[in-house]
Specification:
The chain is mostly helical and 433 residues long. The protein is built from 17 helices and three strands. It has helices at 2-8, 21-42, 45-73, 77-87, 95-106, 116-140, 149-183, 187-216, 224-248, 254-259, 264-290, 298-302, 306-325, 333-340, 344-356, 384-393, 405-413, and strands at residues 331-332, 360-365, 370-375. Strand 2 and strand 3 (370-375) form a beta hairpin.
């Protein structure tokens, strides 16, 4: 019971600046595991993985066709096909069938260009897949504003255009490296090291790819360190799953008896489902790693008194107003939380309420994808009374009017909010506190 109570409550009351380096790493690891596990259950990642699997099935042929078509334009089509087959070694049985579909898809072209309905289907299928992936990542990161369609189109199709170039450069480098090593006088000495690199290479490649995915796809600023943590864990899990899947196909041979030539289809769906689940779990890990401070004092923040929450509301508005008055760069939620030792989860909640009530406005920086806050009301007019009138009147008022005469009478006779703060109804400006 003590351990459970520590993991669920006490550990969240200990901030990182209170710990030694060793305990900081240990506590951080425990918090990430707890948050990722909780998110896996509460956010139903298996359902999101199923939705992505469905999107992939629609997009996989058009996506491969686009990559091969770009490779054909550069005269490296065979190299692209070979690389795709090597990359999806776990689906070796399905690759010939998929590539056959790709070739038939490409037969609808003239002069290497997609025409008519084929072009529309390709663009819609591929864009829909990328949009679904970004929505899933934004949901995990609690980002409400997606990229614009133009930004999505240019970003994702630029990435697809770069893939064939990356494959060619990678293959060329590998061939050059192997040739140089074989001619080297130290070949015998380097052989064990090269063998290790060959076996460990897929892990490194997965780490890089997954890190880039977690760094780029969410429409918010993701720290490289946190993306790399998730990239290493998810990349390793993905590679281990590949190995287990390949070796485990012998145990799944009974599917051949049941499904015959269609046995590869349920296995493909299983592989896609678990792969998507690993990717999404990695996104949860990157979010948890970067936002651990959001969950400090989580239980206490939920139980905060109305009096103290109103005090913190006034304090945060005062900080924003004073910064604006001094003509300094506006504060972000992270700055407010870190500089004043306030749980960032509570800061974000209060800032959200103030933004909804029209007291503050949210300034979104497209360059670094950071949000900061400025007054939405002239600071010469923003009194304490105006502040709390805005906050308390936001939402629906008197929606039970004429349904309960006693309630209406009491509402008309009593101001329910007179005593929340002693000087609330004075004309004192927030900036003059």
């Amino acid at each position: 019971m003590k351990l459970i109570n520590f993991i669920t409550h006490d550990i969240w009351r200990i901030t990182e600046h209170e710990l030694s380096k060793t305990r900081k790493l240990l506590y951080r690891f425990v918090k990430i595991v707890v948050l990722s596990t909780r998110a896996f259950i509460q956010e139903r990642l298996s359902v999101k993985a199923s939705a992505l699997t469905y999107s992939i099935l629609f997009a996989i042929i058009p996506m491969f066709a686009l990559i091969v078509a770009i490779g054909r334009g550069f005269g490296v089509e065979s190299m692209i096909e070979k690389s795709l087959q090597e990359s999806f070694v776990a689906q070796a049985n399905m690759i010939p069938t998929v590539m056959g579909f790709v070739q038939r898809y490409l037969e609808t072209t003239q002069g290497g260009l997609f025409i008519g309905v084929g072009l529309v289907v390709l663009l819609v299928s591929v864009m829909n897949f990328f949009i679904q992936v970004e929505l899933a990542f934004n949901s995990i990161w609690q980002v409400k504003k997606p990229r614009s369609i133009i930004n999505q189109f240019t970003m994702y199709f630029s990435a697809l255009f770069i893939v064939p170039i990356f494959i060619v450069l990678s293959s060329g480098f590998t061939i050059y490296f192997n040739t140089m090593v074989e001619k080297s006088l130290f070949y015998d000495i380097l052989s064990p090291f090269l063998l290790f690199i060959v076996k460990f290479g897929p892990y490194i490649i997965n780490w890089i790819i997954f890190t880039i995915i977690y760094l780029v796809i969410p429409n918010t600023k993701v720290n490289l360190k946190d993306a790399a943590i998730a990239g290493v864990l998810a990349g390793s899990a993905f590679q281990l799953f590949q190995v287990l899947y390949i070796n485990g196909q012998v145990l799944l041979s009974r599917y051949d008896v049941v499904y015959g030539s269609f046995a590869a289809i349920p296995l493909l769906l299983l592989w896609l489902q678990i792969s998507c689940l690993i990717v999404l779990l990695g996104a949860e890990i990157s979010y948890a790693s970067q936002n651990i401070q959001n969950f400090e004092y989580e239980a206490d923040s939920k139980n905060i008194s109305i009096r103290y929450k109103n005090f913190l509301t006034l304090f945060i508005v005062w900080l924003v107003v004073k910064q604006y008055e001094k003509q300094q760069p506006p504060f972000s939620s992270n700055q407010i939380a870190a500089d004043n030792r306030i749980p960032i989860r509570l800061v974000n909640q209060i800032l959200g309420n103030l933004t909804d009530a029209g007291v503050l406005i949210e300034v979104f920086n497209e360059t670094d994808r950071n949000k900061s806050y400025q007054p939405a009301i002239d600071i010469q007019q923003l009194t304490i009374a105006v502040l709390f009138e805005k906050v308390e009147s936001f939402g629906t008022n008197k929606f039970l009017e004429n349904k309960n005469p006693l309630l209406d009478e009491l509402w008309n006779r009593i101001n329910l909010t007179n005593n929340i703060l002693e000087n609330k109804n004075t004309g004192l400006l927030v900036k003059d506190i």
